[in-house]
User: What shape does this take?
Amino acid sequence: MTEISLEKIKERAEIDAKRNGYYLNPDPKFLKSLLQGLKKNEERYNYPSCPCRLASGKIEFDKDIICPCDYRDVDVIEFGACYCALYVDEKMHTGTIELSPVPERRPLEKQAKSYDSTTKEDQTKKSEIIEEAKVSKLKLWFCEQCGYVVYRDEPPLICPICRAKKEMFSKIKTQIIYSS
Amino acid sequence: MVIFWVYQKDNSDIMQFSKIPGIRNEHKVILFALSTCGWCKLVKQFLMENEVEYDYIDIDLSEENEKEEIRQIIRDRGGSVSFPTTIIDNKILITGFRKDKIKEALNF
Assistant: This one.
């Protein structure tokens, strides 16, 4: 079991929030419970998986929900908060908008790995898996100011390297040319 | 105070719930939660503050077969398998911390 202090967990989250233009949950009690959840997960799984999702305990199945999870950026952009509400945007931070639950966007096929998947319903899920897979809209983006490149749905709120705003990001168009 | 209560489905699988007693006990309230989740804590707190009697399971602390069983229970009622999930009187399913929906279902 890895021992890690709550202060360390908080510091790590604060640094990450600042770098990406986010804020931590403004409610001190809520924030503390999330940080405690992360601490517990890091201690029992050896990685800080999302406190509000059921982890399998196997890193190969849980890597998308290790905080900050793969869904954080799109959720903060769409809902103003990530799924567990550890990371929020400025409006949530200042209390302009009240925090409300964020729907789960993690694909069902990945969620299923946390359960005993030796059951009959695996067959019926196939169609849902295909549907979920189509949803991914990952693109390459680059910062016009410093050249930082990132692969995700939307450009970051601010460039983690030079602090340029979202508007400074442009899509990179990729073209594959086949020569004989 | 925590009293253990046993839930039986098809007389085969037995699950252990923790019971939180309350004055408002006319409805059967079941909560599936995670011990680490902030939203789940809010539901627990909300129910307690309103003196609602409920039974809960922290699914991350459950046995593997129980986890699957809980997933089936939620799916059978058309819910997305995320936590917190509150089931009232075995038919109304509420995903997430929705104060208004809980209040409406419990008539207060």
Q: What stands out?
A: Chain A touches chain B through 26 residues (CB under 8 Å). DSSP finds seven helices and five strands in chain A. The longest helix of chain A spans residues 28-45.
